[in-house]
Amino acid sequence: MGRVRLEAITWERLGDLLADRLLDLKPDDDSPWPRVAFDGAPAARPGDLAQRVSEALRVRGRPSLVVGTDGFLRPASLRFEHGHEDVEAYYGGWFDTAALWREVFGPLDPGGDGRVLPDLWDPATDRATRSPYVPLPPGGLLLLHGPLLLKHWFPFDLSVHVLLSAGAPPRRTPQTQHWKLPAYERYAAEADPAATADLLVRADDPRHPAWSG
């Protein structure tokens, strides 16, 4: 990661400024429904930021839909084929990227109907969620959050990476999930999301974020 200047900000102010930035994403023929990534390890809580931005967009009159990749995990029989703590399987095979392309991005392509499936699989019950499709009005924004997002070539119109420094993930990740930490380190080395994302948010101290905006 190169040297990026970050400025301190509050979460409330960050949500407002990001929402204002997203208002500039106007629908066009190539992107009728703009798509935004909130990328980050679970300890960085990118989903919380996505929800905060969605609420800020709502009060500004712009519809949005928050979708988490944790609702698109593959069945347990596939995720745990090589054991419950296989880093390689987690890095490359836990998330059903084909379903995300089909059920989330496909409906938002030019000529799509805007009906997005908000989740597909419940990892707690290991069954399909059977959630109904959600219609996203024309010009509405998709806010997709989750880890490892920027290595799949998903067609995002803007990406936000929520960054943790090297010492933060072990402190903020439950002990039972520490086996996943090498996957996030590999992702940082291979995909370099801190450099490739359009906007960077540092969340080492959950009370005092900073951002590159």
Give a quick rundown of the structure.
With 213 residues, this protein is an alpha/beta fold.
Question: Would you write up a description of this structure?
Answer:
InterPro entries: P-loop_NTPase (IPR027417). The chain has eight helices and eleven strands. With 213 residues, the chain is of the alpha/beta class. It has one domain: 3-Layer(aba) Sandwich (Rossmann fold), CATH 3.40.50.300. Strands 1-11-10-9-2-8-3 form a seven-stranded mixed sheet. A two-stranded antiparallel ribbon has the order 4-7. A two-stranded antiparallel ribbon has the order 5-6. A hairpin with a 7-residue loop joins strand 10 and strand 11 (210-211). The longest helix has 14 residues, at 46-59. It is globular and about 45 Å long.
The major pleated sheet works out as:
7 strands, mixed
Residue-averaged pLDDT? 95
Strand line-up across the major sheet: 1-11-10-9-2-8-3
- In CATH, the architecture is 3-Layer(aba) Sandwich
Helix content: 25-40%
CATH domain class: Alpha Beta
With helices defined by DSSP (H or I, 4 residues minimum), what is the helix count?
Answer: 8
- Determine the structural class based on helices, strands and strand pairing: alpha/beta
Number of separate domains: 1
CATH superfamily: P-loop containing nucleotide triphosphate hydrolases
CATH topology type:
Rossmann fold
Order of helices and strands: EHEHEHHHEEEEEEHHHEE
